[in-house]
Amino acid sequence: MISANSRTRQLNGTCVSSVDMELFLHYSLIPSLFIILVLSFLQRREHRKQRDDTSHLLGNRFGIIIPLDFVGTFSNRWSYGIAFGATANKVMFLFSEGYQPLHIPQWAQAFVLLIGGMEVGLSHFPFFACLSSEFRLVSSILGFSYSLIWFAVTILYIIQCPHGQFLGKYETVMFYWPSLLCLAFLLGRFLHMFVKSLRVHLGWELQMEEKPFLEVHQAEHVKRLLRKAPLQETKKSWFQTRVYEWDPCFQFPSRMIGTTVLAFICLYLFIVIEFCMFMYVRDELDVFEGELENYIASMNQTGTLTPVILQVKELMNVSKGVWLVTILPASLTCVSYLFHILACYRKHMKRLWAGNKHFLPLKFHHPSSSKSVVAIARYSGWQIAYILWGYLIIHVVQSLCGLMIMYSLVLPVVHNQGLEMLQGLGIGTLTISIVLGLMTLQVWIATSFFLQPKMSTADKQKPLALNNRKAFHNFNYFLFFYNVLLGLGACLSRLLISCILGTWLIARIDRTIMQNGYEGADMGFSAWIGMLYVDHYHTNPVLVSFCNILITGHRERRLQQAIKYWCLNQSAGPRVSARSRTRWLLLQTLVNNPKLVMLRKSRPGHSSREFTQILLMGSES
């Protein structure tokens, strides 16, 4: 009798939805381009060059719109992050290289993927453009309409074919619920923007101030630096001491929040896809296992291949169980990496703000400016790819470790070979203990007999000065041949530890796995360093505060100058000619700055000093 899960798979194997999500992605470019044109028409160009062609007919319309500031955006961060999350399914579609609109040769795949990335970015561009546009009323209507189209099409696609061929019931829901949740959040966000902008338009609320040049947390950071007496430290909780301590003077930029949100959703989708592949492979292995059982039954369990077949069946069963069990630790490892990368970003940025570069390799103390600019464009995409591939590699390594544990500890007990297992484990442990003991004994002998005594009782260790040199030379000679064999084990352990650490930290883009001097070959780490430098040079609180002081002072001087001239122009009394007003201002300037008299040009027939005296006499009279 067919199981319910099998019936669901058969049912959905023939399910044909009227909505093709890949085709809808192509058609979504039409409203996307319309929204971009509308927002570009509303956006005015600040610096417009006069030309002799027909471009002057556009006036200062059709300015360049940006989706978001990847460097200095600290407001509306979670909205941008959720907008990134709405693109997760399409990002995974590109990651699996499923974008194949044309049949092209293998060498041109990079161009096809580039075109696919551009199309996905253009189709989701309105989400970001409507969030960042300063025309809140129009952008909220356009953003709500576009989000509603995507939400409705996705809902229709899920309703028509909710189940799948691998996971059975609600497989499509499991794939698309993160995007649906993000789209629902965007609908609520655009609705809130519309209500708020409408109240401002009707005069019920005051217009919000423009985005400040200096953020609040940056100003608080500078105040903390200028404070003479440090604040009294409060008692920290266990979470603040051991896990993470929130800093009110630091905020992650929108790029980091969006990258983290998208990485979480892509990791979830990757795990679901991997589980679907596991279910497919498991079903195929079950069919193969059934054929092996039929062969054993036909041979009445007396064939020469029967023991081998039983071992193969055992290996398949153990592998399936280990792979399924290690999904959780592998996923938790990558999730912890995402949080840890955020903590390392804050730690590294604070060190750079303080002028501390000792945590960086020497070759990264002065990185290339062009490579740093490219690095900030690469970082987000590479971080997501590193997490996904890192999860797969970590999962494979953990599965291999699980197989070793099963075959060395568990299966011997199942097969009533526990005593042999304990005997082998004891011999191995004793061998390793003796080797480590001999290495420790060498250190103790060197400390006790071959080093001179401490020069002071306060010294932590003996000085590096040889004692008992004849005994020392004999010690080296006789241990020379033993250390050759010991070095072989040390070399193998070095290789094993390097492989384990390299595979375990492959998802950590903030830490290089290369040896000292070869860090430049790690492209992911180079992108991380370049991104740090771009953020350091453009969002340093001290630098931003200094620029804010200059801008504020310049605006105040221009405002005072404008008020001063307005008062002169609007003063009551008889009208004064422009020439008389200019002479009066010239006289005021010369009175306040007497040294300028010697630097003035002389008029024809009058010296500058005589002309100045005439002005001064006229003013005194």
From TrEMBL:
Annotated source species: Panthera pardus (Leopard)
Query: Which keywords does the record carry?
Result: Cell membrane, Membrane, Receptor, Transmembrane, Transmembrane helix, Transport
Its subcellular locations are:
Cell membrane
Q: Which InterPro entries match?
A: STRA6-like
The annotated topology with respect to the bilayer is: Multi-pass membrane protein
A molecular function annotated in GO for this UniProt entry is:
retinol transmembrane transporter activity
Transmembrane feature ranges: 24-42, 78-95, 107-129, 141-159, 174-191, 261-281, 322-345, 386-410, 430-451, 479-506
One GO BP annotation is: vitamin A import into cell
Q: What is this protein called?
A: Stimulated by retinoic acid gene 6 protein-like isoform X1
What GO CC annotations are associated with the protein?
A: plasma membrane
Primary localisation category: membrane
Q: Which Pfam families match?
A: RBP_receptor
